[in-house]
Amino acid sequence: MSKKGVKTRRKMKYSTSRKLNGLIFMLPWIIGFITFFAVPIKNTILYSFNKVEVGAAGGIELTFNGIQNYIDLFVSEVSTTSQPIQRIFATENISIFTNLSLIVIFSLFLAILANAKFPGRGMVRVIFFLPIVLGLPLIVEWTANSTGRMMIESASGGMFGAENSVELLLEYTFLPKKIIEFLAVVLSNIFQLFTRTGVQTMIFLAGLQSISPSHYEVAKIEGANRYETFWKVTLPLLSNVLLFAVIYTMIDLFLNSSIAEEVYNFAFAKSKIGVGSALSVVYMINVLVVLVIVLIFLKAVKVIDKK
């Protein structure tokens, strides 16, 4: 048989194959976004530039008023706690940046502990990740309504209470008072912090288990100690996992922030759908800006580490 009669199959480039696989992986999310989120986002932006009322014959009646809803939002409107909206945004952003670092660091610490080799490691993992399997809100509510409530109240008012923590840290450390007050608040809210670290811990644990043991063997041969191995091997190889955990944590914090409750109150409790929609749009822009800032910071840190 001649070579002309044989059909040659062209191999797909590796880069093209990766792009195609990525597109297939993202296809369910793209379809879900277009189906369930694209239209509500479009309507929210539309309502934010209109005065939304109920029509005489039923339905929604829109009256274009430009950016008046945005002006009212930051000039005349106040939150349910009688605070200006800009103060709510400032407080939430500071809280989110603070809790973000605490949750991510604490999650990585728990993942390293869960990944360590010790007797009974399998049972410890089952107990640790049981709230994630059964549903974290269910476990938290059950703990709060049982003997766990006594433990939480004792911790918040006992040795780990904010006032006692400040006194202990002032007496036995030389840290500035502002830092001590911040650490005291963290200690008093350690239980709430722990309940927000389950998914992130699983993400970091999966990342740790995907690291090849050969990297650690090379580091050991080169004479690196555990501290150097963590900063030179573990953390760089977890950079992509760290980015994913940071983004997930930020979205989770934003969804559970007080601003989301204010959107509901404006739109439904106060029947100001236009102002509530304007707050939603500003909220989305704020989330995107914060995400961009965090991504730029992580990229800058990664560049510095390479140098």
Strand order of the largest sheet: 1-2
Structural class based on helices, strands and sheet pairing: mainly alpha
Overall pLDDT metric: 77
Helix tally? 16
Approximate helicity band = over 70%
Query: Count the strands?
Result: 2
Q: How much of the residues is beta strand, in percent?
A: under 5%
Radius of gyration: 26 Å
N→C terminal distance: 58 Å
Q: Which overall shape is indicated by the principal axes computed on the Cα atoms?
A: globular
Question: What does this protein structure show overall?
Answer:
By secondary structure, this protein is mainly alpha-helical. It is built from 16 helices and 2 strands. The protein has helices spanning 14-36, 38-48, 68-75, 85-115, 121-134, 136-144, 147-157, 162-172, 177-188, 190-195, 198-209, 213-221, 226-237, 239-255, 258-269, 273-306, and strands spanning 50-54, 60-64. Strands 1-2 form a two-stranded antiparallel sheet. Strand 1 (50-54) and strand 2 (60-64) form a beta hairpin. Helix 4 (85-115) packs across helix 11 and helix 8 packs across helix 9 (177-188). The longest helix has 34 residues, at 273-306. The radius of gyration is 26 Å and the shape is globular. It starts with 13 loop residues before the first helix and ends with a helix.
